[in-house]
Amino acid sequence: MYLYILPTNNASINFIYSPSMAFLSALKNTTVFGKKNYKTLNNLLLKKQVSKIFILCDENTHPLCLPLLLQELSATLSYEIIEVESGESNKDIATCQHLWDTLSDLGGDRKSILINLGGGIITDMGGFVASTFLRGIAFINIPTSLLGMVDAAIGGKTGVNRKNIKNQIGVFSQALLTLVDTQYLKTLPQQQLRSGLAEMLKHGLISDKAYWKELSNLNQLRTEDLERLIQQSMEIKARVTTADNREQGLRKILNYGHTLGHAIESYCMDNANKTPLLHGEAIAIGMILEAYLSHKICGLSSMELTEIKQVILHSFPKVSFNPTEIQALLKLLIYDKKNEKGHINFVLLNKIGEAQIDCEVPEDLIFEAFAYYQEN
Length: 376
Ligand SMILES: NC(=O)c1ccc[n+]([C@@H]2O[C@H](COP(=O)([O-])OP(=O)(O)OC[C@H]3O[C@@H](n4cnc5c(N)ncnc54)[C@H](O)[C@@H]3O)[C@@H](O)[C@H]2O)c1
Ligand SMILES: [Zn+2]
Description:
This protein has two domains: 3-187, Rossmann fold (3-Layer(aba) Sandwich); 190-374, Dehydroquinate synthase-like - alpha domain (Dehydroquinate synthase-like, alpha domain), CATH 1.20.1090.10. It is α/β, with parallel strands linked by helices. It has helices at 21-27, 38-47, 61-64, 66-72, 93-105, 120-132, 146-152, 190-207, 209-216, 223-243, 258-270, 279-297, 302-315, 323-331, 363-374; strands spanning 3-7, 30-33, 53-58, 80-84, 113-118, 138-143, 157-162, 165-172, 177-180, 346-351, 354-359. The structure holds nicotinamide-adenine-dinucleotide and zinc ion (ZN).
């Protein structure tokens, strides 16, 4: 059982339609930071002709984050709350099916709006469900995990896993609004914070050496210190994805660490003898492996290679992989979404702060990369 629906007691209200197209188009695909933006959210929900508001959360964000959101929402709004069970294994079509059924059973129509309140799983899956229900209803992302704030909730990639293949089913679809408020991070477990740090480190590696240096010098993850850094990561992600909405070129740089990282994440999720890894934990390993490939293929200096390995291993524990596991893992690379005409394309680094897309890598180098990652 992974779906519960809790009707709310709020009185329904009549929405007044005031079709301010300028207001709405100004908001389309907007990412905003800070508490002051709840005013924009309320205006949007009140001004747009919204027939029903649905709030999607999981069993953690429901008790921990929803009360904070409800304090900010206009008391005149009514909404339905839909809860799904957390976990990567529930980010699948079966859960989507329940969500589509629920939206339909609760009277969702084209003018309904879905607010995704949660980490990357909620925003990825909620965005996909909204974008496909009745050929697409509007959705708003309110990320509650660090990874969601700096990455998953921004840029319009939505989707779910098929079997053990990460994000194989999905669509590009922009949220009407993404509102980032760091108050939600107060209850986020430390291991989850660290998972978000991996994507922030990636932002530095692919586009901003000074930002990488600043992150490298962080001694502990305290949410107070993270505010400005989060905004910087949000800017990097938004800048890259706005320039290349559908990943034709530049946007591919965001996949640094993800070619091998996704394969590692999928492999560990699907094999009983492996401990499942959080997304950021798998990407952290992928970034070290792909730094080694960058050194061999794209001229990343050995000094920067060592620095990348040291900084990442300072925060992320090593995981060991034997040759049979590496071989099995390589088989998963054929599902990578950057592949074209049967070629596996990597994003590699020329140096810290500068990435290169569409790099081909021979298989033996990948084995060498694992050996480099595992050596002391
Ligand atoms: N669409 C994209 O561009 C993109 C980018 C990066 C990652 N992703 C996807 O994002 C997913 C990972 O996201 P994630 O790391 O946020 O995982 P997640 O959604 O599983 O959230 C992590 C855990 O923390 C809990 N949680 C969330 N916010 C909380 C809070 N404020 N307090 C307490 N607990 C809280 C959740 O219930 C969950 O158990 C992966 O599926 C990945 O593929 C997507
Ligand atoms: Zn990622």
